[in-house]
Specification:
Blueprint (H helix, E strand, L loop, with lengths): L1 E9 L3 H9 L11 E6 L10 E6 L7 E10 L3 E7 L3 E11 L4 E11 L7 H24 L16 H9 L1 H8 L1 H7 L14 E5 L4 H12 L3 E6 L2 H15 L4 E5 L5 H14 L5 E4 L17 H17 L10 E5 L23 H23 L5 E5 L7 H6 L1 H7 L6 H13 L1 H4 L5 E3 L2 E2 L12 H15 L3
Parallel strand pairs: 8-9, 8-11, 9-10, 11-12, 12-13, 13-14
Antiparallel strand pairs: 1-7, 2-3, 3-4, 4-5, 5-6, 6-7, 14-15
């Protein structure tokens, strides 16, 4: 038997801490070793409640069934988990203190079959897993308990291709392309939700994915504002969308989203004209093959793809609807899987400039911001998500990465296919019940595949502080 013991203290009252932790349907929100967790029995947690978990153990995804054996509000919960080759009993005790709650966690793990002889080898791995889990719980409890679970369960039949897409090169190419989209869409139900009266702001809505999103949202009767750089293109797209959808509530504002002064100006206009904003879609982005600086002295990739996203969202944050349905959707890229954020060189000065890497690092930063905003805004009922649209045939890809475009043109997605998950995140009820996730094809996905791309908590906070400092005087 392997015994794991950990203790933490959080500055929250014991009752909400107990209720959150004892609900094992939310384990994936704080335990990095859990891929998905969902209740298998109805009702609130209590003795006899069943949860089905999918665990992350190296390249494997074992399934585990947990049952609550003891449930004593607000002091103790005991659960027993069983899998094919091992079992575990988790005892979690809660004690109120003068400043919050102490949590004592004990796990007793037993292996069967040939694994029974491998305790010596498994013990260090499992102890590290336990430390990561309890650290995740402390972080979650310390930074806000969100009102609804961010389930990462797989749609039936699509889990294998999702795992392969994240971890294997050739299947990943197919999954990010049109074949992956066509496979996954077979498991979807039709998205019939409308957006009557919802005020939506989208950046980069005049071509490619953004235009396809704008058209679909207008069909759902949203009150739509497009932020674009080119007046002629914006006016032409506005006219086209109104004619095709019959929705007259489509307008545009002009801004270069790599120039902070432009963002400030357009944000002021939005705050003047809209009582509230229900949905913000940070879609605009660009890949620059040569290092350039904006009129404000900022490296253009960083300014457009990361700093601008931060500044616009922060400027508009106070105006998001508080009715429990507001959403922020940040469009990232699958390329971010290859890169770690470099908080010491956000403007790509130190190494020879590589446009694709600079773009990927900026998009990695957007995913980090998504997590931070989700933690800050969850108590206000604002859902924040990031997504990547897969590999899409857009004018931007064709001009910035001509070699990539020519080699993979036969499997690239259409802009409409790339737009699907953005529209789903903006309108589907299910998407509003979760926050802080990274999506592809309507499914939550891992944000890291390679261990060397994982940022630390210090790096996350440094990123936030740097972006905040760069925009403080704008």
């Amino acid at each position: 038997m392997i015994r794991l013991t950990e203790s933490i203290h959080v500055n929250r009252p014991v009752e909400p801490v107990f209720r959150y932790t004892a609900d094992f349907g939310r384990t994936q929100e704080w335990d990095p070793g859990v891929v998905s967790s969902k209740p298998a029995s109805p009702g609130n947690p209590g003795v006899g409640s069943i949860y089905n978990l999918v665990l992350k153990f190296g390249p494997f995804r074992p399934e585990m069934r947990y049952e609550i054996l003891a449930y004593i509000p607000f002091s103790k919960v005991i659960l027993k988990g069983t899998a094919d080759s091992f079992s575990a009993v988790d005892t979690i005790c809660f004690s109120p203190t003068g400043t919050g709650t102490r949590i004592d966690y004990l796990a007793e793990i037993e292996f069967s079959g040939f694994l029974n002889r491998m305790d010596l080898f498994m013990s260090p791995v499992l102890k590290e897993t336990g430390r990561n889990a309890i650290t995740g719980l402390r972080h979650k409890l310390s930074n806000g308990i969100c009102p609804a679970p961010g389930s990462r369960r797989f749609a039936s039949g699509s889990g294998l291709i999702d795992y392969m897409a994240d971890h294997m090169i050739l299947p990943g190419m197919l999954a990010f392309g049109r074949p992956g989209y066509e496979i996954r869409r077979r498991f979807w139900t039709e998205n019939r939700e409308t957006l009557y009266g919802k005020r939506v702001v989208i950046t980069g809505g005049t071509s490619g994915i953004g235009k396809a999103v704008a058209l679909k949202l207008a069909k759902k009767r949203a009150d739509l504002t497009i932020i674009a750089r080119n007046r002629q293109k914006a006016a032409a797209v506005q006219k086209e969308i109104i004619e095709q959808t019959g929705n007259p509530h489509v307008d545009f504002l002009l801004a270069d989203l790599g120039v902070m002064a432009d963002i400030k100006r357009v944000a002021v206009r939005l705050l003047e004209k809209k009582k509230s904003i229900d949905i913000l879609i940070n879609n605009a982005g660009a890949l620059f093959n040569d290092r350039e600086e904006t009129s404000e002295g900022l490296e253009r990739t960083f300014a457009t793809d990361l700093l601008g996203v931060f500044y616009l969202t922060e400027r508009l944050k106070s105006r998001f609807s508080r009715c429990g349905s507001a959403r922020i959707i940040n469009v990232s890229s699958g390329g971010m899987y290859t890169q770690k954020i470099d908080v010491d060189d956000l403007q790509n000065k130190q190494l020879p400039y590589n446009g694709a890497k600079a773009y990927a690092r900026a998009k990695r930063g957007v995913v980090i911001l998504t997590r931070l905003w989700a933690e800050q805004l969850c108590d206000a009922g604002i859902a924040v998500h990031a997504m990547h649209p897969g590999w899409v045939d857009t004018p931007g890809i064709a001009s910035a990465l001509p070699g990539f475009h020519s080699r993979l043109n036969s499997i690239l997605r259409t802009p409409e296919q790339g737009a699907d998950t953005i529209v789903w995140l903006a309108s589907a009820r299910e998407a509003g019940l979760k926050t802080g996730l990274f999506w592809l094809d309507r499914q939550p996905r891992e944000t890291h595949v390679f261990p060397n791309t994982v940022e630390s908590e210090t790096e996350r906070q440094t990123l936030w502080q740097t972006l905040n400092r760069l925009t403080a005087d704008t």
